[in-house]
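A common beginner's mistake is to predict each chain separately and then try to dock the pieces by hand. The better habit, illustrated here, is to supply every component at once so that their relative placement is modeled jointly.
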Amino acid sequence: MKKIFLIVFVFISVFTQTVKAQEIDLKEKVTEINDVVTGISERLAIAESDLSKLTKIKVSGYMQAQYQYFENPSIQPNNYFSLRRARVKFTYEMTDGVKFVLTPEFVPGSLSVKDAYVVLNDRWSKAFSIWAGKFNRPNYEVEYSSSSREMAERSTVIRTLYPGERAIGAKLEYNPINVPFHFQLALLNGADGIIINNTSGTNLNTTENKDFDNYKDIMVRTTYNLQLGNFGGLDFGAHGYFGSLKSNALKTLSSDYTTIEDVKFGDAVKRTWVGGEFQFFADLLGGMSIKGEYIAGKNASIGYSPVAAAGTTAAIPGVANFQNNFAGYYLYFIKNLGKKNQFAFRYDYYDPNTDITGKDVTIVKYTSADATTLKSRTSSKSDLATSTFGLALHHYFDDNLRISLDYQIVQNEKVGSVGILTEDYTKADGTKVLKGLDYGKVVNQNLLTLRIQAKF
Amino acid sequence: MKSINIKKFAVVAVLLAFVGSAFTPAPERITVKGSDTMVILAQKWAEVYMQNNPNTAIQVTGGGSGTGISALINGATEIANSSRKMKPTEREKLKARYNTLGIEVACAKDGITVYLHPSNKIKELTVKQLGDIFRGEITNWKEVGGADQNIKLYGRENSSGTYVFFQENVVKGDYAPSCQTLPGTAAVVNAVKKDPNAIGYGGAAYAEGIEICKVKKDDNSPAYVASAETIKSNQYPITRYLFMYLRNKPTGAMKSYIDWILSPEGQKLVVETGYFPVK
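With all components supplied together, the output reads:
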């Protein structure tokens, strides 16, 4: 009996020990698995955190490669391939309400910064935002992306007034959530894309990263979007530019070439203009739109008056400041043809000097004269108005790829007497006009562009 | 000789097939993409419509309202379903690419429903309390009269129209960082089912197996659940329209389909799916 009891006791002890050992083993395994799961969870949390940082960075961009043919035989070469734009836009939304944007442009031979700004959104009403850095000037055609625009280039008046489109400064935007009203007020250096000569006539404004004077320019734009039921909509608005540049010259010549006034170094030379705009959209057998803008005012270019050497009183040749009254407008007609094709027509007019007509213009290239004889500057072809008829056809292979055929027919205001240009000349918008052109008749400046655009 | 006849026959057959195909109406294809909230409804519409109109093929996918509107802008879909209104920035993109402002069709109504675990003793909340909870300013159920337990938040991803609507109308600020975002309302409902301390939101049609929280406009108002009457009478405080967006005025098969959706037959399916008719 004792033996049996002993055997049973030993058996139970061994069994209990085995079960205990198994339990311990199982617990160890559970702990081990728990550790593994915890480890994976931690790594997943880190990965999620890293991923959420990456989702705050958005990258987009586009590239435009083109072939151009210039009908003007004096332009050489008169046809070539080029890369018009190649931009990558990086947007980083740090938190809800803070955004950084950087857009470098990579064109063969140069790397430049197109946009570099920070946007701070008001987190309460969500209606206000403050921009600081280099951004598009507040204007419809300027702010309308080149990748969406229906013509190869912006209209002449916009290219002349807003060279390079961007400016450095700060901007306040007001976009109330439930009202289709928009307001922009910008304070800008005002020197972007403008030639600022030193007293020897050398352009100082090459890097454009700071201002050249203490005058700040103000730009304001306001728009309202009116929805016309399911038929379409009408957006309309106005913008104004109120700025000054510091005079580097001692004379300022008026737009009509009749008066010249004395100014001091550092005096403000005013640049002010206002414009009205509209964009009408209608759903008529597919989408169509008519867009237009009219701008008029006074622009200025800054001259220079060299300082006489110490101990001398001799007059030194210089260039007077010049203030020109101008007017310009554009009118687009755009029609979508199905989902893949689009047709666009634009008439664009720019008169750089509304005080001088073609018959008053004497084509004499201005030669820098003595400061006392600046009045002898005569009107020239830089005062001639230009009108451009543009036609464009676009085919969208998909949302990323567009091929465009664009033809611009350029007409110039004719001068009264035969005027053959005796020297090469650079217009205010940067385009070069070569010598030998007779502005007594229409100078053929027509341009054909075949462009392919890839966007992502 | 025989082989020539076979060739002639083949040529004639191909010609006949070509001519015949020209007279046979080609199946109309309509793609619908967008709101996950509306997927069930859109699929139901498509299914019933295709049964009665076999010549029309309708393909429905979700992805969220933002995804649907993006697809409309880039030409990848004909109809974008959206549980929120189109944003001005999206409208500007549509204008730039297609020169239209798009066509908005309000096709159903929805009451955004707040989901709770059945064991939660909280049965009603005010809109303000919901905002405080989802902003992370109220973090424990005891602060609104419940158990001393931390609140677990579940919501939708930011491409969702429901996310945007709930944020603009209830949260009125940023969602709490602790709010777990899930892909689709069904996933939110599942998460709330499993977690006694959870709260989530989504379309009324998905509210199965969970407790529906009654919602009060403010402390002094009565609490309501989303129902045909409370939505029609504007008593339920978190009510919204569900939209379909098109690039242009609909024509042909698309017009027939939209007209049918707005007809009593189409609106009957709205009710059957758990949503509310527009009229």
